[in-house]
Amino acid sequence: MSSNLKGIRTYGAPIIMALALILTGCFGSSAPAAAAPEADAAPAVAAEAPAGDAENMNATLQAETVALRAQLTEMLTAQPAGAENGAEAATPEPGHAAEPTPAAEAGHEAAAGMDIVDTAIHAGHFTTLIKAVEAAGLVEALKAAGPMTLLAPTDAAFAALPPETLAALLMPENKAELINLLMYHVMTAKAMAADISGLNGNSTNTGLEGKQIAVAVEHDKIMLNTTVAVTIADIIATNGVIHEINGVLMPEGSSFMAGAAAEGHGTAAAGAHDAPAGEMDIVATASQTGHFTKLVAAIEAAGLAETLKGVGPFTLLAPTDAAFAALPAGTLDNLLNPDNKQKLVDLLMYHVIMAKAVASDVASLNGRTANTGLTGKKLNITVDNDTVMINGNVKVTAADIMATNGVIHEINGVLSADGTSVVAADGADANAAAGAPAAHAAAHWEYEGAEGPAAWGALSADYATCSSGMSQSPIDIRIYQPLGLEDIGFSYQPVPMKIKNNGHTIQANIDAGNSITVDGVVFNLLQFHFHTPSEHTLLGRALPMELHLVHKDADGNLAVVGVLITIGAANANFAEIWSHMPAVADEEQPVPAPLNPLTLLPKDRRAYRYSGSLTTPPCSEGVNWLLLATPIQMSTDQIAAFRTLFPLNARPVQPLHDRPVLVDVTIGG
Questions:
Q1: For the chain, which has fewer Cβ within 10 Å, the N-terminal or C-terminal residue?
Q2: What is the mean pLDDT of residues 420-424?
Q3: Where are the beta strands (DSSP E) in 3-141?
Q4: DSSP state letter for 146
């Protein structure tokens, strides 16, 4: 335990903050649990709304009152703190503690993963949607605890709009209309494909008050407002679910409807996953998707392309390229050797179900088995927190990619009939540099993909704490204890520094001469670096960036000062650093004039204090965290300049467990 956590005392029950109340009201018991057609196939929905009963399911989805939906509207449309007039971002007021509701806390206890916004960014084909979300100021709302459902138009869907409509969408003067349009694509509950299918012939409420979406199911395909199809379903995020759609839904009365969509309120694009009859079979659909290249190559090498182009119907459980990359070195090359063709055929046929099984069909097999194209070999199906798991460890990561002769479900592992399936992890902090081992000894890691945060603990025995540790960072600041703590003593002065691109962030390496004092212990400043978005969150919300100043005492203990960064005026104190940011990894540039790190901090230096860890591998614990409660500002251009080099370099928040979080209530001088 860090020295600054001495003298902890117990306080009464913390008060419940207004945001927690809003989230509980909007996303509480009325949100439907994903359910398969059979009662024992998945976590059950409320007794009065069993899956498959359209009238009752619709009642469940529409249970929110006008007042609660108005609260959601207010939350979603509120300007993000600090985005106007250079105002500082709102933070939990020191001296007031907030207690999360169980629903809100669940999102932060989830395994390291990505929220709806980051999941959409990671997918790579929702770039226009993300630009629109950012222009509307809805990023933080869609990163909130939820749960919620996002009907996500692809880039092709936006491209199908008339050019003048697409341009008008992003104009600042049309922001209110854009917010309405985007909220029309949000459901204020987590609605899986099976839930939406249960609304066949009915309508469902949206985040745009008074506006509904008509739902129909045609040949196992979910259609919205008649013309827009769900092309990939059940893309799970930590705070809800995304369904990819091939059109932009237009609420009735929207000014964007002129020239964009007639009756039916949607403009659909013919997408790679939307396979009209006679156009795209399973093999062609997998090829067009772009992230099944290794699977398609294996199908061709095995001589199965014509089989899987046949009438069918088939269900293909499709490992991604990342899944194949996770196989032991040389395994795929060995399988592609012509001498091993039969082994390859057997492996691939184990990924085929000789019938069309959409997501709800597969989920209905919860606790049972399914036959495969490999004679005598079966798949074990379970449903865990709305996620379909195969053979215990392989996850269906995107469902219901429709083809003319069947359906594809994307999976994150390569299945093996002998039970040895290999899984790829789901889609930095440079503080590891403070006393970390030499780079050549460390396993490679990333912020996304197979080597992303969810996989760090498995990349190396040295990184095991990343997954097993009980005092990991970052955390969500939500419950804290106000105390009269001794001020942090900052002894900073202008010193020379070098700016390095270390491949994970921009890091300023500092010459000796700067330190902080915490409870009488002196920690010397080694370096500082940046993350986007912020790694720590406040009541579930991230800020645009976060600065970490890394210190070490004489005994090797670390103390990190965190500084949250919000949008405001250009910050001249960072100008020299920003002008010397190397664009290439491992490059380093000296800053011509000495810089005083004190100028980078807010004047109010009260801090949230807790014992945590490094936020990158090896995730070592025992780090003294001092997160300043008051953010600083940077301009939109300054933040964008950093994101050009590092679009995402933040670890998701980690469970707090039983750790106390303290906050200063007094400050001297």
A1: C
A2: 62
A3: none
A4: -
- What would the pLDDT profile of 459-516 be if each residue is shown by its tens digit? 988 899 999 999 999 999 988 888 888 889 999 999 999 999 999 999 999 988 899 9
> In this structure, which amino acid lies at residue 202?
N
Separation between Cα atoms, residue 202 and residue 204, nearest integer Å: 7
Interacting residues of 347 by C-beta distance below 8 A, sequence separation 6+ = 298, 335, 414, 415, 416, 417
In 286-411 the beta strands, taken as DSSP E runs, fall at: 314-319, 352-353, 368-371, 378-384, 387-390, 394-403, 406-411
Tell me which residues are annotated as active site: 504
Highest mean pLDDT among 327-341, 428-442, 485-499: 485-499
Contacts of 202 (CB under 8 A, 6+ apart): 54, 55, 58, 214, 215
DSSP assigned state of 623: E
242 and 150 Cβ atoms separated by less than 8 Å:
yes
Phi and psi at 302, nearest 5°, equal -85, -5
For residue 301, count other CB atoms closer than 10 A to its CB. 18
20 Cβ contact list (under 8 Å, min separation 6): 98, 99, 100, 101, 104, 539
228: phi then psi, degrees, rounded to nearest 5: -105, 130
d(CA 93, CA 535): 19
List, as own/partner pairs, every contact residues 62-70 make where C-beta atoms lie below 8 angstroms and the sequence separation is at least 24, other chains included: 62/204, 62/205, 63/30, 64/26, 64/30, 64/188, 64/189, 64/205, 66/209, 68/25, 68/26, 69/26, 69/188, 69/205, 69/207, 69/209, 70/209
| Sequence-distant (≥ 6) Cβ neighbours of residue 141 within 8 angstroms | 75, 76, 77, 78
